[in-house]
Known about the structure:
Layout: E1 7-9, E2 12-20, E3 26-34, E4 45-54, H1 57-73
Antiparallel strand pairs: 1-2, 2-3, 3-4
Amino acid sequence: MAEHTLYDVNGYLFWVTAIQLPNGKWEGYAFFERKAHHANAEVPGVRYRLLSEFDTWDEAVAAVQAHAEELARNDEVNF
Length: 79
């Protein structure tokens, strides 16, 4: 079972992960949601793919986490 840290930045909630590509490299992903009141029936969300390849899972996750934090902090998630 995978474990992910949920980040809370500037009204966005997000978590990050990486997948291994066929060439053995890794690519990072961030999954965003807008904070919403618990009564909302629909919560906006979006997935971002960091178009870079990394040698390890840790490198990919660190890079996509930094990128996701910057997007959230600057309100550039663009739902």
